[in-house]
Amino acid sequence: MLIPHPLLGLRDAQEFTYLGDAALIGRPAPEAGEAAFCDYVFLRDNPAGIHRELWFHEQGDRSWLVVTRNTLTHEILGAELATDVARRSA
Amino acid sequence: MTDLTPITALGGTAPRVLGAARLTLSERPELALASLALGRGAEPPAPEGLALPGPGGLSVQGALAAFWTGPDQWMVEGADLAETDFAARLQQAAPGAAVTEQTDGWACFEIAGEAAQIEALAERLVNLPRDAYAPGRASRTALHHMGVFLLRRSPDRLAVWGMRSAAGSLWHALSDTMARMEALHDS
Questions:
Q1: pLDDT (tens digit, 9 = 90+) per residue, A61-77?
Q2: Structural domain tally of chain B?
Q3: Do the Cβ atoms of A13 and A7 come closer than 8 Å?
Q4: What residues make up the domain containing B82?
Q5: Nearest-CB residue to A62 (from B56, B70, B128)
Q6: By the CB < 8 Å criterion, does A4 face chain B?
């Protein structure tokens, strides 16, 4: 599997480690309450199809990426820097 | 005063060199290394006139050379400066940047030979697209499960920076692959 790194081009997926759902970027505000944090920490969607997820380029430039992947076919549809995603949604 | 004997990463009193028919592998203990990182939004400095390169890049200016290691992060090499306070010199040339001495945490091995031979060796060592080790490029990747930096200084030279504590394993990986390639040619 190859991941299209936005800065470095196609890189072997073995250079990366996987964290999970990219929704983790959207952490609730400190005063959001226990219920919101419980959902944030424990609840994940498990879609059969398009999924946005966090990958860490551990054996590369150590940047976090948001990778859009089809969980049925393993096709990778795109990747962008997680910092860009986080700043856009901030 | 205690009489200490300085040794290289491979434990010798002189840099190890392995000459084969087509490629030469040598230890480069005289290279100094320091990391340079910028705070968010800071303008990249140009220490001693050295332009810090973009992703995957490598640049040289006088005794200094820099390669990109991540967004707003670089490693800076100093030729023949390993026995000096290299980080202090770099910090002075790049005020405001976060500079950390790296020299003794790393070991550099350099492979010299014809471009086609170097590329054939790199193909066997790492899983990277060819342009990641084209002349003037630098990449971080995994080699035998070790994180390394590959620096293609020129068509006929490829440098590999690896962890100093794993210098023996890295030398083994490089020399073994070289020996197999030579055997392939001779068969």
A1: 999 999 999 999 999 99
A2: 1
A3: no
A4: 17-186
A5: B70
A6: no
> pLDDT per residue over A35-47, tens digit each?
999 999 999 999 9
Q: A2-89, what's its fold? A: Folate-binding fold (3.30.2270)
pTM of the complete model beyond 0.80: yes
Cβ–Cβ of A14/B140 closer than 8 Å? no
Q: State the pLDDT at residue A90.
A: 73
Nearest-neighbour CA in chain B from A14: distance (Å): 9
Residue B2 confidence class, pLDDT cut points 50, 70, 90: confident
Q: Residue B141 belongs to what H/E stretch?
A: strand B138-143
B69·A59 Cβ contact <8 A: no
Distance to chain B for A83, nearest Cα, Å: 10
* B186 Cβ contact partners less than 8 Å away, ≥ 6 residues apart: none
Asked if the C-beta of A11 comes within 8 angstroms of chain B's C-beta atoms, the answer is yes
Separation CA A36–CA A27 (nearest Å): 9
CATH code, domain carrying B40: 3.30.1360.120
Q: What is the number of other CB atoms lying within 10 angstroms of the CB of residue B85? A: 13
- Residue A14 sits at the chain B interface (C-beta within 8 Å): yes
